[in-house]
Amino acid sequence: MMSQHALDYSATSFSQGRMDFSWEELSEEERRQAYADYEAGKGLIGGDPRFRPGALTLPTWGLNLPFFRTLALDDPRGDNGQRLRADLASARSLEIEIGYGRGDFLLDRAQRHPDRLFIGYEIQTGATRRMMNRVVKNAECGMRNAESPISQSPNLQSPISNLWLSDDDCRFSIPRIVPEGRAEMFHILFPDPWWKDKHKIRRLFSPPFVDLLAAKLRTGGLLHFKSDVQEYGELVRYLVEGHPAFSKHNPALVSRIGDFVPTHREHWCIKSGKPVWSYYF
């Protein structure tokens, strides 16, 4: 769906990473501690946004663009919050990608499904700004094509008006932004495993995070997860299948994804002959 220049997978320094990822089934005490840590905001990347200077204002580079920060929705300098709230109040099906990285999968999906609404979270502000530049360039390309006498060609780009980006930690933002039962799909593709023991608290998947996904997905909604770390995949499977709101992993549900452009990480895995573990709940 995206033009070829947008999919120029450059050489990377990716590696398979450590392969000694381990986990055990959680005790009741460990589950209680997970909820206590979650409620206290421990593990949020960058810390609790409520205690950051300037948290109530948007960066100038994001004003009046499809970008938001949860605590800055009412920044009077732009209309970001007003437009996001209107989009979330619409009847359009919502898909959310958490940790979109360079954004290949998300940008393609937003173009491929213009009738749907998309939100992408990426905690690295630099990556978010680069993705925003791609969104703007694709929109500009679409506007030029619309003015062209050959604009009826099915291969030309169109402006992107169904995609929002944020550099908030999704665990802080989603409870405050997304209405209950609003999401059709969550895509969580190749999240950071946070290998070190002292960093495990930053790991995305935990019992309260699975509760959050269950609350925000509509009945029949889909959780789409991928990793190149098999043990992380099995941890996610243990946590999700142990939740009463989710059915067991069903590979046949991949049909609901349809055609897609792989993430930069998945492209590297395919090219390098590395296995990828995919789960659909």
What does this structure look like?
The chain has 281 residues and is an alpha/beta fold. 33% of the residues lie in helices and 13% in strands. The protein has helices at 28-39, 80-89, 104-112, 125-147, 170-177, 207-216, 230-241, 264-272, and strands at residues 94-98, 117-121, 163-166, 183-189, 217-227, 277-280. A 6-stranded mixed β-sheet has the order 3-2-1-4-5-6, with helices on both faces. The protein is globular, with a radius of gyration of 19 Å. The protein starts with 27 loop residues before the first helix and ends with a strand. The model is unreliable at 149-158 (pLDDT under 50).
Name its key features.
globular; alpha/beta; 6 strands; 33% helix; 281 residues
Count of distinct strands = 6
Give the percentage of residues in beta strands. Answer: 5-15%
Q: Given the structure, what is the number of helices?
A: 8
Strand order of the largest sheet: 3-2-1-4-5-6
> Alpha-carbon distance between the termini?
26 Å
Share of helix, binned: 25-40%
**Biggest pleated-sheet summary:** 6 strands, mixed
Class based on secondary structure composition and strand pairing: alpha/beta
Shape: globular
Uncertain residue segments: 149-158
Residue-averaged pLDDT: 90
Order of helices and strands: HHEHEHEHEHEHHE
CA-based gyration radius: 19 Å
Short summary:
This protein is of the alpha/beta class and 281 residues long.
